Predict the structure.
Amino acid sequence: MILLKKTLLAFVAGLLCLPGSASAQQPPKKPDAGSAAAAGNIADFFSKMGDQIFEDCIYELSAEQLEVQHALIGAYIRQGASSALARKLAVKQIRPPKLSAECEKVRGMQQKSAAKQPAADALPWDPKPAPPPAAVPAPPAGPPKKPAVEMAAKAPEPTAPSPGPGPAASGAPLAPGAVLTQKQVLPQWDCAPGVDYVTITHKGYPRKLTGGEICNPFEDVVRELPATASGFRLGYTIRTGRVFVISDDPKIGGKTIAWAISGREACRNNPDPDCFAARAIGPLPPGEYTFASDKGQRVSWGPKTKRAVAGIYLTKLWNRERFSPAQTNAILARGNIAIHVRLKGEMSEACLGLEPKGWAYVASLIKDQRATGVNVYIEEPYPQIAENPPVVVASTFSLTSLFK
């Protein structure tokens, strides 16, 4: 991003510093008002580009995507695929989202500028083959073995060994990951019957992936509100993943906006108290949330996440009667949460992970101050108008493709 801004500023400076004539002996011509205005517009455009367009452009894989990509290579090799094929599939399946036309323009300008730089100055979005995983066995010699096909309706998933005893009934802090490894993914989020998948381990927890994507992701549904609608709160139902409107206006109250994942692995949209108490694993806790006090920073660039995020801050925890003192302490110690886009293969670090179109629209509601906060519910507060989650249960991934 710094290189991009320097390039754009240098380009603008070059335009503004061009001489009025090729001869140094001739006096420079006074620029006309039109030229000065045009140069000003160019400078204004480029100064805003880094803060607006570029920050919506995700060129790189996230840290989680890289981890998933490397784990997929190992999973495919264990199924009997060659190392070359495993790497090819994983790189093809886990990639950044498709760029918009504006982002492609920015990328093209950056690439032209970087072409003049030494080879060591690699662009942040240059595709690089993923390094082989550290502890993956070499592919078997001789004819490829028959794949050990994993199907959604067959043997239960292996679980990592439990790191310790379950949570204490007192106010003692919970052991990290305690009892969560023994929990199963809720049926509605598990792979549909007949869908091929491979299992990877991410941060000590098993995850099923089909074609590089998690099982049963949400469709990228967006239902826009009337342009005049404002002053409402966003609602979120943990059990279903529905994002909706909270308003006294009967025309928009309860209306679905989009769908979002919260929590990962067995804790995905799982209102289990142990999941709520698990930092970076469980879904966001029920309660009232507010946005950043600085209205200009409600949607900001996260340099670690390499994407724009909207931070939300818990101001009131609900349903305390469901939690033990230890769970309540752990929930309150989880820290701040964010709303963000979910990239392919990712789940959600206990935040709200929306699909690209859903994120873009929800972010605009927050940035334009039409949404004033977030309420999070365990159960659906509008059952009379809420619909079933639009999950994608089909998959074109086939384990037999590993041996072609």
Residues 232-377 form a domain with the L,D-transpeptidase catalytic domain-like fold (CATH 2.40.440.10). Confidence is low (pLDDT under 50) at residues 1-28, 119-147, 153-176. The chain has eight helices and twelve strands. The first strand starts at residue 198 and ends at 202.
